[in-house]
């Protein structure tokens, strides 16, 4: 008994934090928290509040209630085309660029010849900003001096970027060119981590390569699928620089992000109205985020 008590007495108790430890923890946690509040949540809450007012940035702030939202949904002609274009971005990147990136990743993972060259070439557009991609699109698709019309020839060159019925599709192709390489690298990393034993077991069970991929390999890529989905939504909703570089987001290239910029820092100076558009964009983003979190929580409960 005395020896047992002696051992218990000799054990160190829970370590108390000194004042210096508390100061270090406060600095390490407090500074990022303050920056997050000042740079993200502060402007977000300010935008929500300003969306119910009329303000030009100089004069008095006047309460407007839901007037900005009523004008936005009923009388603002650029709003619904911008919503439609953002949905087109989401559908184009989600149902064309992402599957094509997966296809390229599967082909490269199988060890085709010159796979390193293909991998580097397809990934190269990812290092370019969308603004640079927009300038490249102008060099290729310009009506009078573009490379595409020079190759096609003809007396009446096509205005690929000036025609509202064509320019959105040309811009989407340019955006897909960049997004495909990003998706390919993500899926390629996921395919490298798949256990080869799963493929061998599927082959022993008589599954074809197609069946083994869709029933064995693809389910194991669920974390990568989630990352690709999140990145695709982010790219679709924050698209701005490529259309602004081409024609300032007008004449068929309207996007919600461009409308926010035009109303807040443009000649109109309608900060309250631009904040209302920003709040709509925020609600759309939250819709995808909440859906993603609910699916993840349900998946954790099933596992």
TrEMBL record:
InterPro entries reported in the protein's UniProt record: ABC_transporter_permease, MetI-like, MetI-like_sf
Residue ranges of the TM segments: 21-41, 87-108, 120-141, 168-191, 212-234, 271-294
Any one Pfam family match given in the protein's UniProt record, by short name: BPD_transp_1
Similarity-based family: Belongs to the binding-protein-dependent transport system permease family.
Keyword Signal: no
Annotated ranges, domain ABC transmembrane type-1: 83-294
Keyword match Secreted: no
Locations listed in the record: Cell membrane
Membrane topology of the entry: Multi-pass membrane protein
Keyword field: Cell membrane, Membrane, Transmembrane, Transmembrane helix, Transport
Source organism superkingdom: Bacteria
Protein name per Swiss-Prot or TrEMBL: Sugar ABC transporter permease
């Amino acid at each position: 008994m005395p020896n047992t008590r002696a051992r218990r007495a000799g054990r160190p108790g829970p370590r108390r934090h000194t004042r210096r430890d508390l100061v270090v923890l406060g600095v390490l946690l407090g500074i990022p928290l303050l920056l997050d509040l000042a740079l993200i949540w502060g402007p977000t809450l300010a935008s929500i509040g300003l969306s119910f007012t009329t303000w030009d940035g100089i004069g008095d702030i006047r309460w407007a209630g839901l007037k900005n939202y009523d004008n936005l949904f009923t009388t603002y002609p650029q709003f619904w085309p911008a919503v439609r274009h953002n949905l087109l971005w989401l559908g184009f990147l989600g149902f064309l660029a992402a599957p094509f990136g997966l296809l390229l990743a599967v082909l490269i993972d199988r060890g085709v010849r010159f796979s390193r060259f293909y991998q580097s070439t397809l990934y190269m557009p990812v290092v370019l900003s969308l603004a640079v991609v927009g300038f490249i699109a102008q060099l290729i698709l310009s009506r009078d001096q573009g490379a595409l019309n020079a190759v096609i020839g003809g007396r009446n060159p096509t205005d690929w970027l000036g025609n509202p019925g064509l320019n959105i599709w040309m811009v989407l192709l340019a955006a897909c060119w960049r997004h495909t390489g990003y998706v390919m690298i993500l899926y390629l990393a996921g395919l490298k981590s798949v256990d080869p034993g799963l493929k061998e077991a599927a082959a022993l069970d008589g599954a074809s390569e197609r069946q083994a991929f869709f029933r064995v390999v693809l389910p194991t890529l669920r974390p990568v699928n989630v990352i690709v989905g999140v990145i695709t939504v982010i790219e679709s909703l924050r698209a701005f620089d490529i259309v602004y570089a081409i024609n300032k987001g007008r004449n068929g290239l309207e996007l919600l992000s461009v409308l926010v910029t035009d109303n807040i820092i443009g000649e109109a100076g309608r900060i309250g109205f631009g904040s209302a558009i920003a709040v709509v964009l925020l609600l759309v983003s939250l819709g995808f985020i909440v859906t993603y979190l609910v699916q993840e929580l349900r998946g954790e409960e099933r596992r």
